[in-house]
Amino acid sequence: MNPTASTPPPALSVECTECAASITLERQPLCGEIVRCRECRAELEVTSVSPLRVELAPEVEEDWGE
Ligand SMILES: [Zn+2]
Q: What is the distance in A from the centroid of ligand 1 to the CA of 65?
């Protein structure tokens, strides 16, 4: 038998650095992309895609100073 049933795409998930919740991504993120945790609303920046790794994104202020 050669089952051709659609296999689900590989799950892309990463652990939130703030609350340890599992964040599931719908597609391969890009390095530097911001993802938001659904649990704690933290904004996480993708710092590495292989392996998938995120860090808490710095708060971006509108005021750039200069
Ligand atoms: Zn979180």
A: 30
